Amino acid sequence: MTGSRRRLLADTRPLRDSPAFRRLWIGSMLSGVGGALTWFAVPLQVYDMTRSSLAVGAIGVAQMVPLLTIGMLGGSLADAVDKRKLVMVVTCCTAAVSGGLAAQAFAGLHQLWLLYALVALQSACSAINAPARRAFIPSLLAADQLPAGLALNRVTGQVMLTVGPALAGLITAVPELGLRTCYLIDALSFAGSLYGVARLPAIRPRPGAAKPGLRAVADGVRFIRRSQPLAGAFLADLSATVFGLPTALFPAINAARFGADPRTLGLFTTAIGVGGLITAALSGPVGHIERQGRAMLCAVAVWGAAFAGFAVASSLWLTLAMLALAGAADTFTVVFRGVIVQMATPEEFRGRVMAADYVVGAGGGQIGNLEAGALASLTSPAISALSGGLLTVAGAIAIALALPGYARYRSGSSSGEDRQDSEQGAETTPAPA
């Protein structure tokens, strides 16, 4: 393999050099594919029961309430206890909730409130589990391998988005299997997640760590507000997920354009995954990009423009191409945000900042689904998706102008005017929350 091709492909050194990271990566991929089946099944089950995009968007409310009330407290807990033990316990609880989703589907209950309640419980578990998991990586990898490790994690996410929905669409199309089989596979897939965590070393808090609670949460929020790189990364991600992630509209758009075929609906999310998987596999140059803030804003703008194109596409191939472009941009957005968050955060705040990162990413998506579903009910799904994509592009421009310390941020250099400007912004200029 030539040197140029080697530099283009994803850097796999973290998998070779860290057995603990390798086990975590494999286990997360196995569990993630199962989780994607549930992510496909719940909105489709709600839409089949109600034929309402607003009811599908309301899934976001069920997820958002525990996310916002528990997420930051979960981060303060992760900073105060052994993260490995915490993740083991919460993963078992999440597996039990997935078992409950399978049970209601096999029993044929068709109770909307029960689906919302189970989704809320699942969100509460994830609000504790995800920040602690994200805090593992700096403990398992050297600093120079952090961008590569985050890119490899994104490969896992894209495999989940690619394989999971396509498999779910095929399973759902078989009457003897249906949605209940998706839920059951997800429950069983948690064995992969437990495998990935069980042999990790203990990741205990540092001496003198803040006690979990509201005071620790407030300290974490103040730290984020003082840092333009962190505040900018979170605001950019919030803009992208609130306005430019119209997954609640997928069932309605699929019904209007392609006859509500579940296999076509599965291809929507699969296309996002394929686009992201390609860029994740070709993520070698990511580690050499120093201006992560500017690069993330560019990726967010492309993400929004792609969903605007999705909104007006009429043919299946163009629809899938726009979704694939959005997935390609999303990989870069996630990796650049991850590098900024990890590099700009000291160890004593890592759990709380990772919790904020998760709350912003997941909560923004749920707010976005509710917003997209509500606007679609007043106008049309296409208008809702188009306006959201255009607002995402406008948001990226506004953030670049409002937070210059974030736009100039560079973590790959220890000197230079841009780096000094970024550090001054982090230390002296409060950024908007």
Q: CATH homologous superfamily - what is it? A: MFS general substrate transporter like domains
Mean pLDDT: 85
Structural class: mainly alpha
Largest β-sheet summary: none
C-alpha Rg, in Å?
21 Å
Structural write-up:
With 433 residues, this protein is mostly helical. The protein has one domain (15-428): Growth Hormone, Chain: A. The protein is built from 20 helices and no strands. It has helices spanning 3-8, 13-17, 19-50, 53-57, 59-78, 83-107, 112-134, 137-140, 146-173, 178-198, 214-226, 228-243, 250-258, 262-281, 292-312, 316-343, 350-378, 381-402, 404-407, 417-428. Helix 3 runs parallel beside helix 9 (146-173). The longest helix is centred in the N-terminal third of the chain and has 32 residues, at 19-50. It is globular, with a radius of gyration of 21 Å. The termini are far apart.
Fill in the keyword field for this structure.
about 425 residues, Growth Hormone, Chain: A, 20 helices
Explain briefly what this protein structure is.
With 433 residues, the chain is mainly alpha-helical. It has helices spanning 3-8, 13-17, 19-50, 53-57, 59-78, 83-107, 112-134, 137-140, 146-173, 178-198, 214-226, 228-243, 250-258, 262-281, 292-312, 316-343, 350-378, 381-402, 404-407, 417-428.
